[in-house]
Amino acid sequence: MTTEKIISASVQFLDISEDEAGQRLDNFLLAKLKGVPKSLIYRIVRKGEVRVNKGRVKPEYKLQAQDVVRVPPVRVAEKNEAPISTKLNKVTELEQQILYEDEVLLVINKPSGIAVHGGSGLNFGVIEALRALRPQARFLELVHRIDRDTSGILLIAKKRSALRHLHEQLREKTVQKDYLALVRGQWQSHVKAIKAPLLKNELASGERIVKVSEAGKPSETRFQIEERYGQEATLVKASPVTGRTHQIRVHTQYAGHPIACDDKYGEAEFDAKMQTLGLNRLFLHAYSIRFTHPKTGEEMVITAPLDKTLKGVLAKLRQN
Asked: Where is the RNA-binding S4 domain (predicted)?
């Protein structure tokens, strides 16, 4: 028997604060009515059950400070989902991975193997875990994303004004992100940048595969050699200028130097060798970020150390 969960039992009138201004109505409602399908949100807006300042508006309406949003009672079918357990090792581990925190910003060193958000068959990701660990937090949103298998720096905004400010910096490309990647073979010194358009394909399974294609979006990654390990491998610093899905992974593969233990774009023989050195994950780590603090205007540079596994692999490569 399907039970119903009451998201909003009675009509609510929500006053929009300065911090909430500027966002689209549909995004605001998705955040406020957690668990409500997008289709239902668009339906109640279209039918005029949601009103702003007593008038009908479209889902893309940009909210202004002092707007009053009328939200009708909402019921959805109850799903028998287990709540996120804050005892899960990977969830509690996140508290140990905080690199920086203040009243508007949280920066964590995301472990490999945790998605940044739920979806694609996953019950939870970093953002859901942090919300479960901090139920008192009024606002926690991802500033950007990194792949599930990539470790390293992830920015989370604690205020909408900070999220807007950081998104603007990302759009203007004033945020400097640097990754460390262990790639196959000897990276050529003269290859300092790869500009190759990337096309994203989604398979029937929901898996995303990206390839270099003239039909794709312009993409650029800059590279610098950090350390060589004979003929076998090179540690490179990769700095994406654009922010496409799997960009660094595909650009290194395109250059003939796939990243170690990349299950989508890697090379089996090289991966097998790296596994004998103890590598059990993708060797891609977001190790440094430079941006302007959204409140103080100060230039921030935050670095995230490599985990024990990655450090151990490099130590063994130096001995070879």
From this structure: 23-82
Are 270 and 252 in contact by the 8 Å Cβ rule? The answer is no
Tell me whether the CATH fold assigned to 4-77 matches the one assigned to 87-162: no
Residue 4: per-residue pLDDT: 52
Domain topology for 87-162: Pseudouridine synthase (3.30.2350)
Q: Is 149 a catalytic residue?
A: no
Cα–Cα distance between 151 and 32 in angstroms, integer? 30
The CATH architecture of the domain made up of 173-319 is 2-Layer Sandwich (3.30)
Query: Of the residues 15, 19, 67, 147, which is catalytic?
Result: 147
> Which of 28-32, 39-43, 116-120, 128-132 is predicted with the least confidence, judged by mean pLDDT?
116-120
| pTM of model > 0.85 | no
Record: fold of 4-77: 3.10.290
Residues 45 and 58: beta-carbon distance below 8 Å? yes
pLDDT at 258 over 80: yes
Instruction: Give the C-alpha distances (Å, rounded to integers) separating 124 from 50, 77, 133, 267, 286.
Output: 29, 20, 12, 30, 21
Query: pLDDT tens, 115-158?
Result: 887 654 445 688 888 887 887 788 889 999 999 999 999 999 99
CA dist., res. 152 & res. 281, Å (int): 13
